[in-house]
Amino acid sequence: MATVKSADDLILTAASLVGEALTRTEETFENELSTGGPYVADIITHTRRFRGKRLRPLLCLLTAKALGNLNRNHEILAAVVEMIHTATLVHDDVLDEAEVRRHVATVNVRWNNETSVLYGDYLFTHAFHLAASTGSAEACRLIGHATNRVCEGELMQVRNRGNLEITEQDYFTIIDGKTAELCAVSCLIGAKFAGASESINASLERFGRSLGMAFQIADDILDLTASQQLTGKTLGTDLGQKKLTLPLIRCLNSVSPAERDQLVAWIHAGTSESTTKVLDLVVSSGAMSSATETAQQFTADARRELKSLPPSPAKTVLEKLPAMSIARQC
Amino acid sequence: MATVKSADDLILTAASLVGEALTRTEETFENELSTGGPYVADIITHTRRFRGKRLRPLLCLLTAKALGNLNRNHEILAAVVEMIHTATLVHDDVLDEAEVRRHVATVNVRWNNETSVLYGDYLFTHAFHLAASTGSAEACRLIGHATNRVCEGELMQVRNRGNLEITEQDYFTIIDGKTAELCAVSCLIGAKFAGASESINASLERFGRSLGMAFQIADDILDLTASQQLTGKTLGTDLGQKKLTLPLIRCLNSVSPAERDQLVAWIHAGTSESTTKVLDLVVSSGAMSSATETAQQFTADARRELKSLPPSPAKTVLEKLPAMSIARQC
């Protein structure tokens, strides 16, 4: 548990560096949603318990802080990216038929799928309404573009469910959209609204993107290996839904034709015994450790993008975040 | 069919008055969506067949035209309101488990619910991305606020499903959000971006709102009475889902206690015989004609808001639109 402890410590350090701004980000988030009346108030209260480590708001605020110009627009847009992330979680839980998120019943279980779909829409549209309150159409455009790519990634993933021929490149395109894009835009906004140069903007966007890629690969590994109890959400859903992720794609492409046929049969069988066999082969084939290595490469890519930032406590935290993002899910 | 014919004629007249702008609105709509790659291209092609009479874009463009200043921002924002409307239709079809829309299989039937949820999100986020292309944060704020209210109306509706005690006031609040708001903002945008005064902006917003209220009441009456073949979508879904609308709410509140108990039992039974009995009582109690009268009152309210506009062909069409909206669904 040493890793988990240090991940928590890092998040606490990050939060304390941007403490007041983070508090105002939280208030902005709550105020924006509170206008919806009694029919959403109880759902908002319930889903407050889903919220995690605020990785995306922290990326935005820390980036701005590291550039020496953290301002009101960052607080608003940090709340916006968190709201969009929450919207995608609510809709993901419908799609995955998940029952638990962060040890709490999902909206679809606590209420129903209809409410989940509409509450996700409510969050999306409030995120855009809040983005407009910056008075910057450019902020709205950036948020709009990022969410377009998130949806494309998710659509590509759903439409490849059951496709056992999916390539690594397709997998990377999917996670680049569904996960890395929102981390990338969080950092880009942090830099842009701090008045950084185009070159610094681009570096920090790439930093966020590589961090997001690493994070999603680690999340997919965790889905295959960890227990429901530990992470507080329904696990093993990817394999059950025939949603192939990096370890399994690598395994399918590295084993012998006979083993591949066997693996495909186990995937189709979908029993707990066959799932264990799949997992054993993914590990023994080396595909699992190879996927972990790829995640580590993305964290190294991320760190390299920070070189041009001047030394500061915020930079030090940013340097440590990629490794943390693969050690513990946020 | 005389009414239907004249409704089609009116839409044709409206479209010809703003012909080039409407064509560019369509192109803007298509171009915005076409960036999504192969995994959405086939869904976009399919849902193109859902599209109706473009009531909301026409409201925006005609309003601007009637004020003598129809410009590029109107074309963009007319495409935005149509895209948001399409997003709500796609998500509504998931919620209603509808199988047909405009004689075409819904996205949830042709693909699956997951794809519907994500494609609806894709449309929402592209609508906001497109709104930002006006360079006006105020446009983004107006669109954001209107979609917030649409979602609130829909959430209130879903959470009142099965509530046989629902009041007329609750019903009006629901349809004001889920339907009237988008018609209202279409007209408001038409006026605001034509440079009209605050007073004209407010009048035209009220015009759109009253038209939308009339339209939704008529749609709810149609859901109870018409056949699937005529309207091209799955009907009688409201009653089947215990979603009470104006005629039924009025009927429940106007019949004797014994008849009310009987009515409640028929609603719970949910068979085709009990549905016929419900419909007979709604008609014989006078609740159906009373609901129709209310729709007509809203059309009169709408027309009154146009008084201050100078005479023009666009004004003449706007004056006729409310009555058309209750004669034929768009």
Structure description:
Two copies of one chain form a homodimer. With 330 residues, chain A is an all-alpha fold. Chain A has one domain (19-231, 241-323): Orthogonal Bundle (Farnesyl Diphosphate Synthase). Chain A is 77% helix and 1% strand. The first copy, chain A, is built from 17 helices and two strands. Chain A has a two-stranded antiparallel ribbon with strand order 1-2. In chain A, strand 1 (100-101) and strand 2 (104-105) form a beta hairpin. Chain A is globular, with a radius of gyration of 20 Å. The model of chain A has no long low-confidence stretch (mean pLDDT 90).
Please give the share of residues in helix of chain A: over 70%
What structural category do the secondary elements of chain A indicate? mainly alpha
- Cα(first) to Cα(last) distance of chain A is 16 Å
Count of the domains of chain A: 1
State the order of secondary-structure elements of chain A, H for helix, E for strand.
Answer: HHHHHEEHHHHHHHHHHHH
Mind telling me which CATH architecture of chain A this is?
Answer: Orthogonal Bundle
- Total count of strands of chain A: 2
Strand neighbour order, sheet with most strands of chain A? 1-2
The backbone outline of chain A, from C-alpha atoms, is: globular
What's the overall average pLDDT of chain A, rounded?
Answer: 90
Biggest sheet of chain A, open or closed, and with what strands and sense?
A: 2 strands, antiparallel
User: Which percent band covers the strand fraction of chain A?
Assistant: under 5%
- CATH level 4 superfamily of chain A: Farnesyl Diphosphate Synthase
Assign the CATH topology of chain A: Farnesyl Diphosphate Synthase
